[in-house]
Specification:
By secondary structure, the chain is α+β, with helices and mostly antiparallel strands. Helix content is 50%, strand content 12%.
């Protein structure tokens, strides 16, 4: 396929164009038996489920534009290249946490990967009030393993610098993040949208000088601090779950940046799901119990990250940063521990800041979350969104003073008892 000019797949052309690929047919069977279903519901890509007499695979193909907007917003096809390379690195650094890749075609900008048969998108599960044992720990350990092992704490420096050069070419998707996350929500941009009843809060936030300056400090950190390879778009729509099993998907925004970015984005989406629960669970007791589970999961996410990061620090710190030759080899284990705690504290502050701006952009910018958008009662939706906006502001502004997750939990509960409209 790579020798042919790029052409977007259609359900009726998938078998013709991919039926000769042995890596696919050995998992699906004879292409004449294939049933093709287009299931892409994201903002950017085509996604097909290919079902044969032997099994199923997922075919994901990039489009030369932003699907959410249309051809008026062109986007390079090379994002499939970065997704493929991120997936194989994540699979090596956190085995069993991402779908297995079976086939990649750079010219056609497509990746064929494992179909997670019984899994559903976590975002949908959160709207249905489903719980998943061990989810927070899984996500925390995924973040720790991918972020630590993709950094100068672990990687050989020459290999890391080559990787940095490779992923630095993911320019267009970084540009989306830098503008849609850190800048566009804080002033009137054409593609922004929000629930009209939020107008008073939107006006207040966009006039908040401290908030805007803080958001730009965070943007500078994202743009300038090439600390590790990020997933780049880690949220509850990028996680699939089934019972106590989970996988992380869709790393096409992969780039080098600060460790706290992935963790902050992920926590933000859990906190927004918490704020949105009045629009999904009518029973007060059931809602409170589920909101408690969400906050417990967030706490387990951070504790899982912190514990695994600390384990890797003590057992796999073999890169150019904080070398053991300076500490343990000199009998100075306390110095190593001091450095570890300093790094975790810095990641924590970044996490809170990135969490806050994500809560703003998912309510005021172009790309929203289903938890809010699917609340049909506009007054109720606005009240839920307003709480999320105010919580996001508190996290951004207070990131240097909020010392632990218990404080975040208390703050979340406190803000969600208020009505800001």
């Amino acid at each position: 396929m790579s020798e042919a000019a790029y052409e977007a797949l259609r359900p009726e052309t998938v078998a013709e164009r991919l039926g000769h690929v042995q890596a696919i047919t050995q998992r699906t069977g004879d292409p004449s038996s294939w049933q093709i279903q287009e299931v892409g519901d994201g903002n950017l890509n085509l996604v097909f489920i290919v079902t044969g007499d032997r099994g199923q695979v997922i075919v994901k193909q990039a489009l030369p534009y932003v699907r959410l907007v249309g051809e008026s917003w062109p986007l390079p096809l090379k994002r499939a290249f970065f997704e493929y390379h991120a997936l194989i690195r994540q699979a090596a650094r956190a085995p069993g946490s991402v779908p297995e890749v079976f086939y990649y075609d750079e010219g056609q900008a497509l990746v064929v990967m494992e179909f997670l048969t019984d899994h559903v998108i976590l975002r949908q599960s959160l709207m249905q009030g489903q719980t998943h044992d061990g989810l927070g720990r899984f996500l925390g350990e995924f973040c720790a393993r991918t972020l630590f092992r993709g950094s100068d704490l672990h990687m050989p420096t020459a290999e890391r610098k080559r990787d940095l050069a490779l992923f630095s070419e993911n320019i267009e998707l970084c540009d989306i993040t830098e503008n849609l996350v850190f800048s566009d929500p804080y002033f009137d941009v054409e593609m922004n949208r929000h629930t009209p009843a939020l107008d008073p809060i939107v006006t207040m936030l966009r006039a908040d000088r401290d908030l805007k300056v803080a958001a730009q400090h965070l943007k500078a950190a994202f743009a300038n601090n090439a600390e590790t390879l990020l997933h780049g778009d880690l949220h509850t729509g990028s996680v699939m779950v089934h019972g106590d099993q989970a996988r992380v998907i869709d790393p096409e925004f992969a780039t080098y940046g600060p460790m706290g970015f992935d963790i902050g984005m992920l926590i933000a989406n859990f906190l927004m799901a918490y704020c949105a629960q009045p629009g999904h669970l009518a029973n007060v007791e059931a809602r409170r119990n589920y909101q408690d589970w969400i906050l417990q999961t967030v706490a387990e996410l951070w504790s899982g990250f912190s514990a695994e990061f600390s384990h890797l620090w003590r057992t796999e710190r073999q890169g150019i940063l904080y070398q053991s030759t300076l500490f343990e080899a000199q009998g100075d284990e306390l110095g190593s521990e001091q450095a570890r705690l300093d790094r975790l504290a810095a990641i924590w502050r970044d996490t809170l800041g990135f969490c806050g701006v994500e809560m703003h952009r998912r309510t005021l910018g172009l790309a929203h979350i289903a938890e809010f958008d699917q609340i049909t009662d506009e007054t109720l939706r606005a009240r839920c969104e307003a709480r999320g906006l105010m919580l996001g502001r508190a996290l951004v502004i207070g990131r240097n003073n909020i010392i632990d997750m218990a404080t975040v939990t208390e703050l979340t509960r406190h803000i969600n008892e208020k009505d800001y409209l």
